[in-house]
Amino acid sequence: MNPQKRSPRCIVIGAGIVGSSCAWHLARKGAQVTLIDSEQPGQAASFGNAGCICKSSIFPFSHPGAIRKVPAWLLAPNGPMRIRWSQFLPSMPWLYHFWRAGKASRVEEIISAQIALMNTVIEDFDEILAQTRGEALRKSDGMILLYDSRKDFARDAWKYESRERLGFPWQRLTHDELRSMEPCIRLGDGVAVFEPEWQHLLDPGVATRWIADAAFERGVRWLNDRVQMVSAGADSVSIVTESGRLLQAERLIIAAGVWSRALVGQLGYKVPLISKRGYHSMIGQPNLAIHHPIMSASRHVLLTPMQAGLRVSGTAEFAGLDTPPDYRRAKALMQNARYYAPGLAGETITEWMGQRPMLPDSLPVLGPLAEQHNVLCAFGHGHYGLTQGPTTGRIISELVFGEDLGIDLSPFSISRFRSP
């Protein structure tokens, strides 16, 4: 075998959970890897997410009738979605693609693609956490999903019918069962569902940092720099950084989250990737004990017990990448959390905002560019970046080394957005 084939030179842009997993898997197989990011590993979206690993999260955010809910969401002060007026017109193409993704036939295609990608996420986490000290950060306690009313629950009936058909376990809890599992939670006349297969990380940022550290121990080179330009020829790829470095390699992996849009744009591709901002409030030493991740399907808030306290996360905000955060969104999350946990407080409450890389059909872009096959995409995972990070890293390494993927990547191709 050609030594270059055994040890290809690769550049990975982005040191979140996806990029760090790519670097780890590539180095494990003998690639010469440079990992580059303007932030330290695990310090962007991978730092502040809800921390959940959810194999059964296969349903797209767009589905028949979903687009009709958007105006009401936008008008509600504490609604689950907000578009800043400066982003209203720039968001229109994304919302158009979102509407198209919600057709019944397309939803079934998206679900099938997500099932294929989610199939090995637990095993891929098993592997990477076992070899990066991260296993101590994982809990496998399931998740409780709350609905404020039976009417809200009935709207999601199609999802539970799909779960039954696909073999994903779930259980409707009686109020006594909910009280025994989470004594602090008040639900009134609502409905509670338990999904036993959910897992969560006690600190997703630290877990990502440990994956990156393990990659560095395998010889991955780290560059704390910002990529300004990318180019690709028939046999090589190049990047130029903000500090003036020129790097060349055989393969380029773009795993830069929402910033990936600009990078593929330099290579001639348009992709409807948008920043769907998420917020969290982190409660240090909370006064109430929460034992499981608890998600409200009615109020779009998620409570996750973590090492540093209780993370209250959620909401979606469409805003420019450089627009200052609006921490009223984080405060609204606390109000919604207190609906279920009256009096919830703590010694400290810190607020955070991160940029989710969201595509309108809820599927990532994964695989080579149509014209530049030595450029591999690994971005746009949206709400499922943490869940799909290690799996994406494995798939990227298999592409680089020409191995059997065991999955059809055509549903994840950038070409689905009519690239040139």
Name a few traits of the molecule.
about 425 residues, alpha/beta, FAD/NAD(P)-binding domain, D-Amino Acid Oxidase, Chain A, domain 2, 2 domains, nine-stranded mixed sheet, six-stranded mixed sheet, about 35% helix
**CATH architecture label name of the largest domain:** 2-Layer Sandwich
CATH topology of the largest domain: D-Amino Acid Oxidase, Chain A, domain 2
Give the helix level as a range of percent: 25-40%
CATH class of the largest domain equals Alpha Beta
CATH superfamily of the largest domain: D-Amino Acid Oxidase, subunit A, domain 2
Task: State the total count of DSSP E strands.
Answer: 21
Structural class: alpha/beta
Helical segment tally? 14
User: What's the end-to-end separation, in Å?
Assistant: 35 Å
| CA radius of gyration | 21 Å
Query: Beta-strand level of the residues, as a percent range?
Result: 25-35%
Mean pLDDT: 92
Tally of discrete structural domains? 2
Main sheet: strands, sense, barrel: 9 strands, mixed
Q: Shape, please?
A: globular
